[in-house]
Design a protein that fits this description.
- By secondary structure, the protein is α/β, with parallel strands linked by helices.
- The strands form four sheets. It has a five-stranded mixed sheet, with helices on both faces.
- The protein is globular, with a radius of gyration of 23 Å.
């Protein structure tokens, strides 16, 4: 009996491995699965047959061949499951929906000032339900809703334990889980964005999130490094100017006080407006940019000296930085004399609602593990 049970468990593990491999590849073939996962061809064929019958995997055309018969392309069924991510900021609610292939199929950003009042959470629930009713075609296949938050979280209890940005303590999302009727999770916003960036990569890297606040994450050993108390990578609160500008955390001279995107939005009316002014060399905007760029270069240079790995720039600013990367790289040279090649500065691949997208992804993983 025990031997039979172990055999069934191994079979289930192999199915999950196959599903995860197919998701990571986008599309693949039976021979490629067998080779990559070190499974026999008959075992692979049988597992794939069962996954096809279960409606989790589909055949979509043929893969290119170097000779001989073309292999049938296998892919995850898009609507096998859905997951929603919600990024809560001081002034906005950003929602994103992904399917079982991790494709972003809907997103929305709403102006809504955060509050601990009941009315805020009622509005949050209403807007989330409205969003899901429009973009999630089969609500019963919604695997869960992940909330991305600026602050420290207790993931076991679904509690935002502290957020200086939102000026609150011990805000529980457990009741919202009960009201929505689907599993809910909470995660730090920079960790969510970094998870979206690095989930399929086998590398050590640092993520610097540049939005209305500055945060960060460290990716090491194929997972996010959280530190002893789940408070690692608070790069926004490194001090770069002693006695400098007051940060929302109460200290003076923090990175956040010099590199948050509100500084740019106020000058241009929006980030898009700021960079439009920068392209036409508006003198006021150029002066602000020079100061911002210098502080960002100092921060990036410090991170490189500490971690000696690639530095990824993301957050709301990430979508605008690519064309100005040469400027940043040149400026960083003034603070990092040990590194003549600054190709280590990279732009995050997710330039649209990265934190909301990243908050949804763990539920697609959980779906595959239960399939």
């Amino acid at each position: 009996m025990r031997q039979e049970s172990e055999k069934m468990e191994q079979k289930q593990r192999n199915k999950v491995r196959i599903l995860k491999f197919i998701v990571s590849r986008g599309s693949t073939s039976r021979p490629e699965i067998a080779s990559a996962l070190h499974l026999s061809v008959p075992t692979t064929m049988q597992h794939v047959k069962e996954l096809l019958a279960a409606g989790l995997v589909t055949e979509e055309g043929e893969l290119e061949s170097n000779g001989g018969r073309k292999a049938r392309a296998l892919a995850i069924v898009r609507d096998a499951a859905f997951a929603c991510g919600v990024d809560i900021t001081k002034h906005h609610i950003c929602m994103a929906l992904v399917n079982a292939r991790r494709e972003l199929i809907g997103h929305e950003r709403i102006r809504c000032d955060f509050s601990t009042d009941l009315s805020y959470f009622e509005a949050l629930e209403d807007r989330l339900r409205d969003f899901l009713s429009r973009v999630c075609p089969e609500r019963e296949r919604l695997a869960g809703v992940g909330f991305s938050l600026p602050g420290f979280v207790d993931k076991k209890r679904n509690v935002l334990t502290r957020s200086d940005v939102l000026q609150c303590y011990n805000v529980s999302f457990q009741e919202l889980e009960e009201r929505l009727g689907v599993p809910v999770s909470v995660e730090n916003d920079a960790n969510s964005a970094a998870y979206a960036e690095f989930r399929d990569r086998n590398e050590e890297a640092v993520y610097l999130s540049l939005s209305g606040t500055v945060g960060g994450a460290i990716y090491y050993g194929e997972s996010l490094y959280e530190g002893n108390h789940a408070k690692s990578a608070e790069f926004g609160h490194m001090i770069i100017k002693k006695g400098g500008r007051r940060c929302y955390c109460g200290k003076k001279g923090c990175v956040d006080a010099y590199c948050n995107t509100d500084l740019l939005q106020k000058a241009g009316g929006s980030l898009e407006g700021f960079f439009a002014g920068l392209r036409v060399q508006d003198p006021v905007i150029m002066e602000i940019w020079e100061d911002y760029l210098d502080n960002l270069a100092l921060t990036v240079g410090n991170l490189r000296v500490i971690f000696d790995c690639d530095i990824y720039l993301g957050g709301y600013l990430g979508g605008y930085l690519e064309e100005f990367l040469p400027q940043l790289a040149e400026r960083t040279g003034g603070y990092d004399r040990m590194e003549p090649d600054r190709s280590y500065i990279r732009i995050g691949r997710h330039k649209l609602e990265a934190a909301a997208y990243g908050a949804a992804l763990p539920f697609t993983e959980r779906f595959l593990e239960r399939a």
